[in-house]
Amino acid sequence: MLETRELTIRFGGHVAVNAVSCRFEPGTLTAIVGPNGAGKTTYFNLISGQLRPSAGSVHLDGRELTRLPASTRARIGLGRAFQLTNLFPNLSVLENVRLAVQARESSARGLRLWSVWSDHKDWISEAEDLLRDVALLAQADVVVATLPHGDQRKLEVALLMALKPSIYMFDEPTAGMSRDETPVILDLIRRLKQDKTKTILLVEHKMDVVGELADRIIVLTDGRLVADGDPDEVIASPVVQQAYLGLTPEEACGSNNGPPSPTLPPRGEGAGAASSGRGDVQ
Ligand SMILES: Nc1ncnc2c1ncn2[C@@H]1O[C@H](COP(=O)(O)OP(=O)(O)OP(=O)(O)O)[C@@H](O)[C@H]1O
Ligand SMILES: [Mg+2]
Q1: Residue 118's pLDDT is what?
Q2: Within 6 Å (CB) of ligand 1, which residues are found?
Q3: What residue owns the CA closest to ligand 1's atom 7?
Q4: Which residue of 60, 131, 152, 221 shows the fewest CB atoms closer than 10 Å?
Q5: Distance (Å, rounded) from C-alpha 150 to C-alpha 240?
Q6: Could you tell me which of 139, 137, 144, 132 has the C-alpha nearest to residue 188?
């Protein structure tokens, strides 16, 4: 089980993540929602090790990770989508995914020189399967640097899948994708959910997506965890209505992804509602 305890980071005087304590159980998909600048990406960066906290700690299966580098955390199962800047931009899409598969296998089994060539074929065939899953196989030979934005996002997801982590962290995985590309990624996350050993964390603004996929929703506002619970209850709660007042109607209703979600309250309702503070939905 993944857990953060009182996790906090300050940037100068600004507390971007403020004493967030939360546990994430295997077999559950937790959506993390909140207005722009709420601290969602920063929370992911603290969990995956891209940032060091000012206070608090991160634990996986009882082991404290707080001072471990991101590379070690990745090896023990924390999967964060690659930043494209970490890729090999002059290599093809397939070569990048193959390298991710290879990295996982080499770190799991150590270097086995006598089987390198047969392994190589297996890595390529697994990489092709992953590209098929994200509908990117037709672009297998394209140089990464020239990929359009939507395809880059698909590649990020393929690379995350290649690592076979126990914790999957998706930060707005469909942002920048067209309407016909989005379902490919959502289907993939849906399939991933069927593996009950995986813990999935999903930052997503589109409430219709969140309402359908999440087993649980937590809400961050100004770096604080202000609601945590069942999706229907959290979406209907005053605290979410308030948290979403900072969003544009398009963002709040997921207008890039079909009609507005019927579950999201209209913008402006609940304006006077007080935050529930940390803990469950009131
Ligand atoms: N490296 C940094 N240095 C200074 N401030 C930062 C840094 N990273 C994030 N912040 C600030 O921390 C706050 C939280 O940012 P973060 O990117 O985590 O928000 P978010 O919830 O992911 O927003 P969005 O929905 O727009 O992606 C913001 O005010 C941001 O400006
Ligand atoms: Mg973000």
Answers
A1: 72
A2: 11, 16, 34, 36-42
A3: 11
A4: 152
A5: 29
A6: 132
Confidence of residue 83 (pLDDT cuts 50, 70, 90): low
Q: What is the pLDDT of residue 270?
A: 35
Which residues have their alpha-adjacent CB atom under 5 A from ion ligand 2? 40-41
Three-state SS at 223? coil
pLDDT at 112 over 70: no
The rounded Å distance from CA 35 to ligand 2 centre is 9
Kindly tell me the sign of the dihedral angle through the C-alpha atoms of 218, 176, 262, 168. negative
Query: Looking at ligand 1, which residue's alpha carbon is closest to its atom 18?
Result: 39
**Which of 17, 36, 42, 219 has most ligand 1 atoms within 8 Å of CB, for mutation?**
42
User: For residue 190, what are the contacts with CB-CB under 8 A and spacing of at least 6?
Assistant: 213
How is residue 26 written in tokens?
């295997």
3-state secondary structure of 67: coil
Q: Closest-lying ligand to the alpha carbon of 20?
A: 1
Q: What is the DSSP letter of 280?
A: S
